[in-house]
Design a protein that fits this description.
Length: 555
């Protein structure tokens, strides 16, 4: 496997620093807190950490609003702490992938302060400004967080574009100085030893010439004019040449509304190594899109994953994920977080860690953390949820919070952001203070300490699966083949290497299910399963229990 770049062999673990571990009792996670928990990552066997933004930030969007790209957010620690973290990770052979937010900055960034106060100055053209009637925004584009994507700035007497929060003005990528500034920042951290970047909303950098109105009936109005925009390949090609070329790093582009064909242009011979597609986590959108719950069925999930698995050519490589800091907890969403929490969390782990691609595991996923409860809108911290829900209430689409609470508790990004549950002490061992977002009530049952001491446990299964993946070449680079595509319960596929084949058999349902593994009989041996008492070799018809997953190896 030595010819593969490291990131094709890697399992990546995402840390959302605010919610990982608090070392100083202020209720907010921090870098020294991460350092205290490095052995947890080491035990898990992961190869790289993707660290959500730790740069200086007023934290309106928890760090995705950067006010100084070269400083560590004071609430998270110091540059010296960050250096200790890097060293601690590297000592354990774990790489560090930083998060780069290049589409926008915080409105408190010095560039934006200058830009709004001195239009004719050096930074005047760093953002997307339009003059005009203070009552009428320049076009009908919408912010991802609800409402117009434009804000009128009294100081400059002009509108600025913000595809996200009003505190997150979009940078003007047409300006070559802006592009250079970002590459400089990226190179600055690379010189400090980071191993790559996850690039926030990086397919939104190029906005269509003239900023034309979008189709008003679109799900994200205007997106056809800024998703994969006209100059995006030029910008990312330049970024590749200026930053990534000749380094042993990884680049992962986060890309809303990405389709498979465009994805294949971004990777392979394209400017990036990897992309995050979202089709499979939009499967359960309802009529009102994200702020509604739709029915989803297993054949549909399989069909989306299958298409992205097979990609367009041999070189194709993708990311594998069910969770991140923007997604609800997968066991609550796709599994059963009550009766079959262990079983369904491990079935999901099996999928993420045995498909073709680079798996990304989000903090807490490895212990089967679940969605939380948010009794009122005051309990919701996430700017995206708060703004969108307010808009739905103000627009009369829903009567009040109670009418949409079930959707918030299903979908809100805060579900992923409740503190990691380390043990059953107060606040789950996350903090000695008052946590910035309440700990999920289920922490006495769901926590790392308990998962370490109990058998079976979600954590132990993740650990074994990660180990197995690392020692089983077909699980990394083997060909992928789906069986039973239309079956409503079974998720079965093979990963075929040069002289070994792994068969993955999952009963992704809460019912018992028989499957005929006759063709495998005798010659197959069990590699791993998430249930006890599994025969070493399948013998014709096999009875699978709810959410049972098994991996067999055959010639
Ligand atoms: O997210 C981009 C993005 O598309 C999300 O806003 C998404 O629409 C939403 O989270 C629902 O899934 C990235 C970051 O991951 C997110 O945390 C930031 O808020 C956003 O960019 C702005 O930087």
């Amino acid at each position: 496997m030595s010819e593969l770049p490291w990131w094709k062999n890697a399992v990546v673990y995402q840390i959302y620093p605010r919610s990982f571990n608090d070392s100083d009792g202020d209720g907010v996670g921090d870098i020294p807190g991460i350092i205290e928990r490095l052995d947890h990552l080491d035990d898990l066997g992961i190869d790289a950490v993707w660290l959500s933004p730790v740069y200086e930030s007023p934290q309106h969007d928890n760090g995705y609003d950067v006010s100084d790209y070269r400083a560590i957010h004071s609430g998270f620690g110091t540059t010296a702490d960050w250096e200790r973290l890097l060293e601690g990770l590297h000592d354990r052979d774990i790489r560090l992938v930083m998060d780069m937010v290049a589409n926008h900055t915080s409105s408190e960034h010095e560039w934006f302060r200058q830009s709004r106060s001195t239009p004719e100055g050096e930074h005047g053209d760093y953002y997307v400004w339009r003059e005009g009637d203070p009552e009428a925004p320049p076009n009908n584009w919408e912010s991802a967080f609800g409402g117009s994507a434009w804000e009128y700035d009294d100081e400059r007497g002009a509108w600025y574009l913000h595809l996200f929060d009003t505190n997150q003005p979009d940078l003007n990528w047409r300006n070559p100085r802006v592009r250079e500034e970002i590459y400089d920042v990226m190179n600055w951290w690379l010189e400090k030893g980071v191993d790559g970047y996850r690039l926030d909303v990086v397919n939104l950098l190029s906005k269509a010439e003239g900023l034309p109105d979008g189709d008003p009936s679109g799900e994200w109005v205007g997106s056809e004019h800024f998703v994969d925009g006209p100059r995006i390949f030029e910008y990312l090609g330049e970024m590749h040449d200026e930053v990534f070329a000749g380094t042993d790093t990884v680049s992962v582009g986060e890309m809303p509304q990405l389709d498979l064909e465009t994805a294949s242009e971004y990777t392979g011979d394209g400017p990036l190594d990897l992309v995050f597609p979202f089709e499979h986590v939009e499967l359960d959108f309802g009529d009102r899109g994200r702020w509604d719950i739709g029915e989803w069925r297993l054949p549909e999930l399989k069909s989306i994953l299958d298409r992205w698995q097979r990609g367009l050519d041999e070189e194709w490589w993708t990311t594998l994920f069910f969770e991140n800091h923007d997604q609800p907890r997968s066991v609550s969403r796709f599994g059963d977080d009550e009766r079959y929490r262990y079983e369904s969390a491990t079935a999901l782990a099996t999928i993420i860690l045995t498909l073709r691609g680079t798996p990304f595991v989000y903090q807490g996923q490895e212990i089967g953390m679940t969605n939380s409860t948010f009794a009122s809108l005051d309990d919701v911290a996430d700017v995206d949820s708060v703004r969108n829900v307010r808009e739905l209430i103000d627009g009369g689409v829903v009567k009040d919070y109670d009418a949409i609470r079930h959707v918030v508790e299903y979908r809100s990004r805060d579900n992923a952001r409740t503190p990691v549950q380390w043990d059953d002490s107060p606040n789950a061992g996350f903090t000695d203070g008052d946590p910035w977002l309440p700990v999920n009530d289920d922490y006495p049952e769901v926590n790392v300490a308990r998962e370490r001491s109990e058998s079976p446990s979600v954590l132990a299964y993740y650990r074994r699966l990660i180990e197995l993946r690392a020692s089983t070449p077909p699980l990394v680079s083997g060909r992928y083949n789906l069986h039973y595509p239309d079956d409503e319960q079974l998720f079965v596929y093979t990963r075929t290497g040069d002289n070994r084949r792994v068969v993955v058999v999952i009963n992704f349902s809460a019912d018992d299910r028989a499957i005929d593994l006759g063709p495998l009989d005798g010659s197959a041996s069990l590699l791993l399963g998430n249930h006890e008492d599994v025969p070493e070799s399948p013998d014709g018809a096999v009875d699978l229990r709810p959410y049972e997953a098994r991996l067999y190896e055959t010639e």
